Structure formats: structure tokens, C-alpha cells
């Protein structure tokens, strides 16, 4: 790292500082670090003015601080020019030029915003002509006010959550110069900027204005006039923030008891309430609570499809003769309640285990999946939007996480210390497990199966039990800036060749064109899949995704741009696949199939005989 700000350092001014060429070569398949300017969590009140970061293998600026102001910051020729993790970050009149990923499992982009970060970009220019460049990769809150964007016509403008204010940005597309537009370096600190084709000094007056003028002229528009220089802003007086209070100890979730017709409160399970009538409840794949008020529920009730992420709540504690926390049903598999009501739960083999008492009742789960000592689980997220996700982070205690229908990430960071014995119920097909340290894959087959008691985090760091996985357990998806990412192995179709996260995979079909190949991209994870290359894709092959791709015409045909298929779904760009074969100009949508509860979308060459039967047969 060039400049590293850590601990609780604060009220720092960096003016006219340049940091170049911090590099790391971690080898193939690993994440390459090295930043020009780096700051850690706990630091705050940073002010950058006329600073430059160039030629760094990871971030030009990789800042985890809160309350950061950057005026006329320049980032050029870095793997990712700007990376922000903190709250209240302002980027004023910044310049991002020619990101250049030199290697590793990262991505090539201009501005990256982490989940939970808050960033505002005011003015500035982000210019390059590399086809692999993403301009904005946002998982937090990113607001744009009047920026200028110049990038390759086949590159990605935005991935993740669409920034607010994108309409205020001036976006110009130029011809691609290859994967990256990083140009020749000169000893006097100048470069060739491929966007405008001239030798431009760094920070030279009018350089950006000339770039904008050239781009506008080439597009047939009127060249904008160079802006008048503004007076230098006054540096704000350092302010000492109030001490950050310690995070309160986690409290068990509240089990609300609204009227029988009430909806589920945000953040809680879907609620179903009993009445005096006989009722049959049909459970779904969502996390659900079935609430029985023994003062009201006097009928004969049945729950069908009770799942591992479902709970039952009673206003009165159930009988527990031997005090082991488990209430078993009678030989007729029916629970008789004191007020004359009764309850049958289809598929419940080991009875109900008491998990704890919350406001309104006693909470029970299936004794077959909830271990002795299990406490009240954390509630699932209320959101189920495909473009948003909820992150559950394990702490040093024993915890139980309950999945929902929403897209979720379960993070086990051993860097915070020894974790507990944790449980994940209801891991969905669009969910991910993220670790700070990779699981041991003894045979290198890309599958991780649990040992006795669950998945071992290594070095006595803790154990994770995940219910509902098949015999293959988890599959390896690769290493990203989040950590080491895994997902349910059962989601990958049998025999499929999978494109992994972030990295640029080289995939290939049968060269002879005899064998039928299936290429799989798990787009429902809504994570970056990189810029892949798919060779020898023929009329006998298919591409399979877990969400429907955008860009199809009325007949279901998706045109390829110079052989490149954009992995764009629900408005989110996840990467691309450069397809080579016999005159590959378009692919067609063959339909979707649901297998073991997972929906797959199948594509093949336009007009080919290959299609849906390859995945359903």
C-alpha cells in the first residue's frame, strides 16, 4: 500500500499526494491486493485534494472510512480506481481513467461501492475504452449528480443496485480498444489516452475538457466549453465526532400476535393465525410462523408442508413430561390441546422443540432439525426483490439463521475471532455462504461436504450446520472481494460446465461437434460472473441460467454483439460470454423448466434442434 490509514486515525488532510505502482502477484485463481491509498474501518474525517493514484493492482483508493471528502482526485490504470466501504463519502470533480486489471479474481472497474456504504459523486469524468470495464458496481447507496461517463460500447455501465441520478450523467459510447484501454506510459508521467488519441499530461488544464470535446464531436454533438476553474475549497475545521456507542447485545425477535387477518410485520416470518374453525394451512417455501392461541383455536387444524425454516407459536406452553424441551405427538400423530382443539403437522417425525419465549407466545420448531440448546432464530428479511439481498453475519456466539425466499448471504468471518456452532435453516437456491478462509477441498473436485456435526471452519474456528443440502453439499464459486463464496451444489445441473464468479473463465464445447454440452451460469445469485470465453459452441449445445436474460425480441431471440452474449437479467449486468462457433450471431430462448424446485432457463443457437429436453431429460 502507498498510504495506509488505520486504527482510529481521523481529521487527516492529503493534498497533492501521488501514489503509484503498489502491486501484488498472488498467482492464478487468487485475489490480487495492493492499493494506492487505503484506510480501515474506525478511521474518519479524511480530506483528499488533488491526489493521484496510478498503476496499483487493486484499488487506487480503497477506503473504509466514514466522512470522506475527495476533491479533484485522480485514479488511473488501477484494477479498480475507486473503492468505498464507509458512510458519508463525497467524490467531487473526480477523474477516473483506464482501469486495468492485471490479474487475479477481481474485476476491472471505475467506482465500486460496498453493501452499507453511502457515496455521492458530484461532477467529474470517468473515461476509458476497455470492453471489460464496469463503470459503477454498487451494492450500497450511490448517488450521481452530473458526472461524465465515456466507455466502450460493449462495456457495462452499471452492475448491482442502479445508482440514483444516473439520468443526470452524460454517457458517451466509443469503440472498444480491447479488454483494457490502458495506454503507453512515458517517463515524464504522460500517457496515450485511447479515448481521444492524443498525448495528455496528467492533471493538465483542459485535458478532460478536450476528452469530452473529442467524444462529443465524434458523436456529432456540440463540443462543451471547458469549465471555468473554481476557487479552491476551504478545508473544513476538523470535528471530533461523538464517541460511537457500543453495539447493544442482540435481543430475541419479537413474535407479534396481530388479529387473525393481520399481515406479517416487516422483518418477521409470514404469519398464519388460527381461529375457532377447522383450518388447513398450506406451507410454502417462505419462512412461516403458525400461531395458535389456545384461548381461540378450538378446531381441528392441519399444517401441510411444514418446512425446516417454519415455526409454531402457542400462547400457552405445551406439555413436556420428561423436561427435555421436546413435545411429542400421540400415536395418531395429533397434538391434543387443553381447550379441546387439536393440531396435526404432516411430516413431523420427532415432535416440536421449544426454542424460547417471545412477546406473545412460546416458539417451537421441528425437533428433527433444531438441536438441543437451540435458541430463538433470527428473523428473515422482509424483502424478496431479486436485485436486493440481505446479509447475515455470524458472531462469536452460537447462532441459528433462518432463510427466506429472498436472496441472502450468510457470512462466517473467522477474522473476528472464534465463531460458535451455528446453523443455517432454509438455504435457498439463490443464497450464498461466504467465508474469510476457504473450506478445505481435499480432492479438489469443487464440492465441499460436511463432516460430523457440520462444515468445519478450520483451526477450531467453529462449525456450521446447513440443513437441506444434498449429498454433494456446497459447490465452490470462487473468491471475490466478499471472500470465498459457496452455494448449494444441487443447483448446478448434472454434467454442466459452470462459469464461476468474477474470473474470466475459458469454457469449451466438444471440438468435434458430436457431444452435447451444457454451459451453466447461476444468474439468480445476482453476482458478477466476469467476462468469459466460450469456444466451440455448436448446434448441439445449450446455455442454462437460473434467471431469464434480458434483450430478447418478440420471438425470443437474443442478438449477440460481435459474438458477445450479455449476462444481463432484471436490468442488472452480471458479465458477458464471448461465444465462438459456427457463425454465432444469435441465441434463442427455448423455454424454462423447474427441477427439484429450481427454475432453469435454456438457450441454444438460433434455429438449432438443441433445447429444453437436454435439461429435463
Walk me through the structure.
With 617 residues, the chain is an all-beta fold. The protein is built from 2 helices and 52 strands. A 7-stranded parallel beta sheet has the order 1-4-7-10-13-16-19, with no helix packed on it. A 7-stranded parallel beta sheet has the order 3-6-9-12-15-18-20, with helices on one face. Strands 2-5-8-11-14-17 form a 6-stranded parallel beta sheet, with no helix packed on it. The longest helix has 12 residues, at 207-218. It is globular, with a radius of gyration of 27 Å. Residues 190-212, 221-238, 240-267 and 382-387 have low confidence and may be disordered.
Task: Spell out the key features of this protein.
single chain; 617 residues; mainly beta; 7-stranded parallel β-sheet
In short:
This protein is mainly β and 617 residues long. Helix content is 3%, strand content 39%. The protein has a 7-stranded parallel beta sheet, with no helix packed on it. It has a 7-stranded parallel beta sheet with strand order 3-6-9-12-15-18-20, with helices on one face.
Any chance you could write out the topology, listing elements then pairs?
Layout: E1 3-5, E2 10-15, E3 18-20, E4 37-39, E5 44-49, E6 52-54, E7 59-63, E8 66-71, E9 74-76, E10 80-84, E11 89-92, E12 95-97, E13 109-113, E14 118-122, E15 125-127, E16 134-138, E17 141-145, E18 148-152, E19 156-160, E20 170-174, E21 190-193, E22 198-201, H1 207-218, E23 270-273, E24 280-282, E25 288-292, E26 300-304, E27 311-314, E28 326-327, E29 335-336, E30 342-345, E31 352-358, E32 361-366, E33 390-393, E34 400-402, E35 408-412, E36 421-425, E37 432-435, E38 447-448, E39 455-456, E40 463-466, E41 474-480, E42 483-488, E43 497-498, E44 506-508, E45 518-521, E46 530-537, E47 542-545, E48 557-559, E49 564-569, E50 572-581, E51 586-595, E52 598-605, H2 613-616
Parallel strand pairs: 1-4, 2-5, 3-6, 4-7, 5-8, 6-9, 7-10, 8-11, 9-12, 10-13, 11-14, 12-15, 13-16, 14-17, 15-18, 16-19, 18-20, 23-25, 24-26, 25-27, 26-30, 33-35, 34-36, 35-37, 36-40, 43-45, 44-46, 45-47, 46-50
Antiparallel strand pairs: 21-22, 27-32, 28-31, 29-30, 31-32, 37-42, 38-41, 39-40, 41-42, 47-52, 48-51, 49-50, 51-52
Amino acid at each position: 500500500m502507498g498510504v495506509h490509514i488505520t486504527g482510529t486515525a481521523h481529521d487527516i488532510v492529503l493534498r497533492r499526494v501521488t501514489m503509484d505502482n503498489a502491486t501484488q502477484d498472488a498467482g492464478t485463481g487468487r485475489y490480487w491486493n495492493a492499493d494506492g491509498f487505503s484506510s480501515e474501518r474506525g478511521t474518519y474525517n479524511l480530506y483528499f485534494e488533488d491526489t493521484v493514484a496510478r498503476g496499483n493492482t487493486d484499488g487506487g483508493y480503497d477506503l473504509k472510512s466514514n466522512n470522506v471528502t475527495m476533491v479533484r482526485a485522480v485514479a488511473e490504470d488501477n484494477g479498480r480506481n475507486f473503492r468505498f466501504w464507509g458512510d458519508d463519502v463525497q467524490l467531487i470533480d473526480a477523474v477516473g481513467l483506464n482501469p486495468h486489471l492485471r490479474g487475479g479474481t477481481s474485476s476491472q472497474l471505475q467506482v465500486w461501492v460496498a453493501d452499507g456504504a453511502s457515496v455521492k459523486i458530484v461532477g467529474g469524468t470517468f473515461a476509458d475504452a476497455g470492453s471489460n470495464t464496469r463503470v459503477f458496481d454498487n451494492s450500497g447507496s450511490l448517488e450521481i449528480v452530473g458526472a461524465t461517463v465515456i466507455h466502450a460500447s460493449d462495456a457495462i455501465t452499471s452492475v448491482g443496485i442502479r445508482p440514483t441520478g444516473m439520468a443526470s450523467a452524460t454517457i458517451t459510447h466509443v469503440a472498444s480498444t480491447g479488454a483494457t484501454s490502458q495506454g503507453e506510459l512515458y517517463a515524464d508521467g504522460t500517457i496515450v489516452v485511447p479515448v481521444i488519441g492524443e498525448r495528455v499530461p496528467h492533471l493538465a488544464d483542459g485535458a478532460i475538457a478536450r476528452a469530452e470535446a473529442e467524444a462529443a464531436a465524434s458523436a456529432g454533438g456540440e463540443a462543451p466549453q471547458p469549465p471555468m476553474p473554481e476557487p479552491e475549497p476551504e478545508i473544513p475545521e476538523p470535528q471530533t465526532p461523538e464517541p460511537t456507542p457500543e453495539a447493544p447485545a442482540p435481543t430475541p425477535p419479537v413474535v407479534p400476535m396481530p388479529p387473525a387477518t393481520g399481515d406479517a410485520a416487516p422483518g418477521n416470518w409470514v404469519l398464519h393465525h388460527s381461529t375457532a374453525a377447522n383450518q388447513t394451512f398450506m406451507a410454502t417455501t417462505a419462512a412461516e410462523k403458525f400461531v395458535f392461541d389456545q384461548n381461540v383455536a378450538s378446531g381441528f387444524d392441519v399444517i401441510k408442508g411444514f418446512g425446516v425454516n417454519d415455526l409454531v407459536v402457542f400462547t400457552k406452553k405445551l406439555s413436556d413430561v420428561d423436561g427435555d424441551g421436546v413435545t411429542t405427538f400421540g400415536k395418531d400423530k395429533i397434538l391434543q390441546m387443553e381447550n379441546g382443539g387439536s393440531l396435526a403437522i404432516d411430516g413431523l417425525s420427532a415432535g416440536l422443540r421449544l426454542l424460547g419465549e417471545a412477546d406473545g407466545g412460546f416458539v417451537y420448531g421441528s425437533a428433527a432439525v433444531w438441536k438441543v440448546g437451540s435458541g430463538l432464530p433470527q428473523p428473515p428479511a422482509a424483502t424478496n426483490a431479486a436485485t436486493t439481498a440481505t446479509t447475515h453475519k455470524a458472531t462469536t456466539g452460537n447462532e441459528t439463521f433462518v432463510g427466506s425466499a429472498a436472496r441472502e448471504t450468510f457470512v462466517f468471518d473467522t477474522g473476528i475471532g472464534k465463531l460458535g456452532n451455528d446453523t443455517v435453516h432454509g438455504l435457498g437456491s439463490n443464497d450464498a455462504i461466504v467465508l474469510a478462509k476457504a473450506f478445505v477441498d481435499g480432492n479438489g473436485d469443487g464440492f465441499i461436504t460436511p463432516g460430523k456435526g457440520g462444515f468445519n471452519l478450520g483451526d477450531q474456528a467453529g462449525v456450521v450446520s446447513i440443513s437441506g443440502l444434498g449429498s454433494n453439499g456446497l459447490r465452490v464459486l470462487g473468491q471475490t472481494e466478499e471472500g470465498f463464496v459457496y452455494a448449494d451444489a444441487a443447483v448446478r445441473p448434472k454434467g454442466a460446465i459452470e462459469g464461476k464468479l468474477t474470473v474470466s473463465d475459458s469454457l469449451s464445447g466438444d471440438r468435434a461437434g458430436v457431444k452435447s454440452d451444457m454451459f451453466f451460469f447461476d444468474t439468480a445469485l445476482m453476482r458478477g460472473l466476469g467476462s468469459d470465453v466460450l469456444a466451440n459452441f455448436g448446434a448441439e449445445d445449450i446455455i442454462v441460467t437460473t434467471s431469464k436474460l434480458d434483450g430478447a425480441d418478440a420471438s425470443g431471440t437474443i442478438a449477440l454483439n460481435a459474438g458477445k452474449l450479455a449476462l444481463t437479467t432484471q436490468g442488472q449486468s452480471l458479465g458477458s460470454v464471448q461465444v465462438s462457433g459456427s457463425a454465432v450471431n444469435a441465441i434463442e430462448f427455448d423455454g424454462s423448466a423447474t427441477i427439484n424446485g429450481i427454475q432453469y432457463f435454456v438457450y441454444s443457437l438460433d434455429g438449432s434442434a438443441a433445447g429444453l429436453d437436454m435439461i429435463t431429460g
